[in-house]
Amino acid sequence: MSILFLFITTISFSQAKELEDVTLEMLRETQSPTDSSAVAEVLYEKAEIRFSIKNSWEYEYKVIRRIKIYTPEGYDQANVQIPYFVGNRNSDRESVSNIEGYVYYEKDGEVEREKIRNSDIFEVDLSDLWEAKKFTLPKIQDGVIIEYSYDIDSPHINNLPKWIFQNKIPTRYSEYSTHIPSEYLAYSMRTKGYYPIESLDEIKEGRIYVRSSASQISTSIRESKHIVKNLPKIRNESHVNNVTNYLPGISYELSSYKTEQYGPLESVSRSWEDVVKTLRETNTYEKEMSRTKYFKENLKTILQDKTLPEDKMRAVFDFVKDRMTWNDEQRIYTSDRLDKVYELGVGNSADINILLTAMLREAKLEANPVLSSTISHGIPLFPTISGLNYVFSHVNINGETYVLDATEKFTTPNLLPRRALNWNGIVMKPNAFEILELVPKEHSLKKYQVQASLDPDGIIHGKCRIISYNHFGLATRKSLDKKDLEEIKLRYENNFEIKEVKDIKISNLLKTSKPLLEGFTFSSDDQKFVEQIGKKFYISPMLFLKSEKNPFLEEKRTYPIDFTFPKNVDYLISMKLPEGYKVDYLPEKTIFKFGDDFINLTYLIEENNGFVSVKVRQTVNRTLFLPGEYEDLRQFYAELINKENEKIVLVKS
Amino acid sequence: MKNIFLTLSLFFFSFFYAQKDYSIANLNLDLLKKSNSVIISQDIHLEIDSYSSMTITEDKLITILNKKGLSALDAFAHYDKSTKIKNLTLTVYNTFGAELQKFKERDFTDVSVAGSVSLYTDNRVKYLDYIPSSYPITVHFEKQVKTSNTAFIKSFRPIQNYDQTIKESTFKIENNSGEILRSHPNEYSEAIKMEQLDENTVLYSIENLESIPREVYSPSLETYTPQIMFALNTFELEGQKGQASSWKDFGKWQYENLLKGQDELSESTVSEIKSLTSHLQSDAEKAEVVYDYVQNNTRYISVQIGLGGWKPIPAEEVDEKKYGDCKGLTNYTKALLSAVGVESIYCVVTAGDEIINIEEEFSSMQGNHVILTIPQENEENIWLECTSQDIPFDFLGTFTDNRRVLALTPDGGKIIKTPAYDDEVNFQKTEAKINIQNRDIIADVEIKTKGTQYDSRYSIADRTEKDIRSYYLNYFDNIKQLNLTDYRFQNNKEKIVFTESLKVVGENYVKIYGNDLILDVNPFNKFQVNLPQYATRKTPFVIERGFVDEDEFVFNTEGLALDTELKDIEFDSDFGSYRLSFSLNEDKLVVKRYLNLKKNNYDKSSYEDFVEFFSTISKFDNTKVSFKKV
What we know:
The complex is a heterodimer of chains A (653) and B (630).
Chain A: E1 10-11, H1 24-28, E2 40-53, E3 57-69, E4 79-85, E5 95-107, E6 110-115, E7 122-125, E8 130-136, E9 145-154, E10 163-164, E11 171-181, E12 185-192, E13 197-210, E14 215-231, E15 249-258, E16 265-267, H2 272-280, H3 283-290, H4 293-303, H5 309-323, E17 325-326, H6 338-344, E18 346-347, H7 349-362, E19 366-372, E20 390-397, E21 400-404, E22 424-428, E23 433-437, E24 444-454, E25 460-468, H8 470-480, H9 485-496, E26 502-507, E27 516-524, E28 530-533, E29 536-539, E30 561-562, E31 567-576, E32 581-585, E33 590-594, E34 599-608, E35 611-620, E36 624-625, H10 630-644, E37 648-652
Parallel strand pairs in A: 1-13, 2-11, 17-18, 24-31
Antiparallel strand pairs in A: 2-3, 3-9, 4-8, 5-6, 5-9, 7-8, 10-15, 11-14, 12-15, 13-14, 15-16, 19-20, 19-22, 20-21, 22-23, 24-25, 25-27, 26-27, 28-29, 29-37, 30-36, 31-35, 32-37, 33-34, 34-35
Helix pairs in contact in A: 3-7, 5-7
Chain B: H1 2-16, H2 29-33, E1 37-50, E2 53-64, E3 76-79, E4 83-93, E5 99-103, E6 109-112, E7 120-121, E8 124-127, E9 137-147, E10 164-175, E11 181-185, E12 193-198, E13 201-209, E14 228-232, E15 234-237, E16 240-243, H3 247-259, H4 267-277, H5 283-297, E17 299-300, E18 303-304, H6 315-321, E19 323-324, H7 326-339, E20 345-349, E21 369-374, E22 382-384, E23 404-409, E24 412-417, E25 427-437, E26 440-449, H8 451-455, H9 465-475, E27 481-492, E28 497-507, E29 511-513, E30 516-520, E31 541-543, E32 547-556, E33 560-562, E34 569-573, E35 576-585, E36 588-597, E37 600-602, H10 607-620, E38 624-629
Parallel strand pairs in B: 1-10, 7-18, 17-19, 25-32
Antiparallel strand pairs in B: 1-2, 2-9, 3-8, 4-5, 4-9, 6-8, 10-13, 11-14, 12-13, 15-16, 20-21, 20-23, 21-22, 23-24, 25-26, 26-28, 27-28, 29-30, 30-38, 31-37, 32-36, 33-38, 34-35, 35-36
Domain DUF3857 (chain B): 53-205
Organism (chain B): Psychroflexus sediminis
InterPro entries (chain B): DUF3857, Papain-like_cys_pep_sf
């Protein structure tokens, strides 16, 4: 699967650009040279990071950005928000200074410039932990150029600010540069995305300011510049799990630092081994994993009559799912002492699944936490701590392995919630670690079974049964949970566009070890699947189960297409024809295949003794496709949908 | 199993609060099943000490039955320079009535309410984002705030949420200020009991209200549920004292204190705008130029500090910065108009797609937006929305149409009405010439829109090519393989007509089964709204704006022989009318369609017919004919 990221290249360095003076020609440009539909364009943006020692190491993050406005839709670019972290402790606080903002415009054939007043810069809080400076620039008109700059001082040297070179408007020049005192601090740098990033790296002699002695020390400074030029605006598309995975970006994570002046560099996250080691020594993975007193009594009760290890695992898993409610936060660190969290019954993903792991271990099972990144958080390609945001549990019973996530009611052993099906996880064992592939290998299955009969007056009556396994079961259970029959009826009527849904029966909603069963009867004369034109009937053999719309409507595609998990969807439809009619036309049987059987459709149909029976199976074997395959994929789906929409023609016999 | 649990827990709860008779055990359990939360009791107490001091105390006991009910908790309190929080406490009880958790004011998150709409405001809010570990839970929420802003007095509006059962709700208002307090119940307030407790205190109460479900096409709750409004004749707003007992006085006070003197402009701006309009004769022509000038030179940015929430920033400052909020931009436009000798009136309105009036019978602080009107002799007044850069001159659209607004004139306030858009005004005409080539159709389509249909369309022209393409893929979603080969737009702001000229190819639009060639006669304007069928509709419904659509599709049927009998369709109901007619001459099949959906309010008992009306139209809109090849 690494095909995705082979495009990342670091080519040799061309030329870093300095900011030029604004000229009349620049102000008179009326559209972007690369994109005539652009509402505005980043002409130049640059971020620079330098270090100093205040209480301890700190960095200064200096940003300057110049934007050309073309049309009123681009005026929003003049509304600027600079978020910064304040945290709960003074020592965590970042500060913003030197905010400057200018508008350049043409007046009487000259370039005029107006500066923003300090009284027009506001401070707002975004949350408990974040504040922001906000301002808007005056005199915004079509054609003006705006420019603003600011400095953020931060003590959070573990991760330097992430930089995405691409913007919602085209970008002509984007630079990110760092000045790292490499004898003291070492960072691992990661780049990602489809566009080539030009980089330059050189070591120079430099100085670092030390506040305690109000002096400067000489040391070698590693200067890196990363530049991307002429980027189009960001596009968003369907079936992309998370678009930021594919945007050109760069991040720096502290990999080692010097504890004493002449001590050796200490590793933090240079390899996955370092990452696991660093995390293993945190409160969450050291202390909370081994505290057991608070749940001991309850555990005893749960395990009372259980002897088989697998039964113990299920009992503990069900207990934690039942007791704990997830607060929707995806975290790798516990929020508080777990005895408190346990008492309250609400926690983040780490609270709940570390608790689960600790209980499983106390039940004498080989259980370990699995560190991962959810779909919305992106893909951690390189050793990183900040790239991880989620944790669940892994159990090994005599070589048989299970993954468990207790944040949701309907998960089962080896069935993780969809958000967790992202790339790889890291199993943190007491003295080792292991990489675990998270995209399921097993196909999830969904079966539709319909028995119907058609009246001579065009009304179809019938029964429908839907059987959902694995991920389909999980998704359907979530959507049916706590709904009353009236709501479920409306849901069917809406999703399938049928009428008079009755006799709804849902089985195994809570019995997650069994497939989920749904059943209902219906009766409908909807023309979407039965039509009388002249004296003939035209019937969709798949009735309301045919696909209506191509999921890939757009003509072009920039990002990969992700189906998340492999799947089979089966349709079995049997329909009794009305007395006095016979089949005039029946669609052909076919098998469509996409690529090397990555996706396929089998469509079988036959008529027998006044019955038409249809058997259709849609299979997705490969879950990830590249933009280069899009055109064919789109065409494949168009054919698939045309096939599903073909009709049987009935005439009077 | 679930139900037993619920009964049990509610029973325990009623036991726990037995001494205050918070009994909900005798509530119909079927009702609870349809609810997401139950207000066991809500008591609001307003104490007005003087025209510049008021204390509001709220005490709410609410059972949250499920996750959806959590939004009814409303665990927050707004504050600013004039409003201080005195108490904020939230206590959570489990199903057995035992205290689970208690939150004090310091546990609440404290943030600015700026959000994404405004750049800055000094209004702040403290809120608690509480997530229970299981349901049901019962929450006791207590809040007390003290404010000097008595210009706004909270209304008693007991029904604030859908799917909520209310056992008891009271509202006590105690006026010790010596100032006159007025009240105004709406026409749905009969069920509210009123009790004079002493000379200065009145207690309003209501009990046992069934939950109201959220259903499609419902009017907003506040338009058909009980509400009593209050106002003081002498009041304060951000340190400004006011006096008013009628719209005339109240408007006068606002004019004098908020508008007067805010309309100064620099001489250079005055001479610039004069020179732009000097060659024009009528007020209307001048106003159009001024409006155009404002649209081209300013943008909407909101900054609200103190009285700035109500008072426009001076016109001169808007002129300097080229931005302002609705008040600032409206006042600026007014100042420019005045500079060229055109008098206009600043009007306060409750804006939004849902039509909500300023209550004519009761003067009090109301509304959330301002617009401008220019009175015209013997003609309809001109109306201007000053916060948009592209809306046409004298066009309000669905944001402020057809509602009562407060006009602030130098002589005082007046309630006047903004123009309504009638069905015939909200017009769309679609014309298409269609060629059939094998299974594909190739068509030239022209869509013209006016009125509110214009309002929802004209901004397409400003979108990117990609968005335009996806817009039409969705708009014509009945054509599964659509290719938009060309598109052009014309926005005639003068006549307020938007024209879309399109060239499209619909691949595989024509279906061939055996020897039959099936053609859907309405490719370009299908009405396909599938209304949900409720067991019983509980709320009234409303079509706030009607419309008329006319279509003409001309198919070139050369080489094809019709195999179906063509039947014209005429269909009328209380909700509107529908026509579909055919004519075949030589090689042309002409399909004409007419649809009128009427503007009206309807009783819930008509809902089934309404569903039937929509489904009949969608059925007719899917009419197909079959051909054979010649």
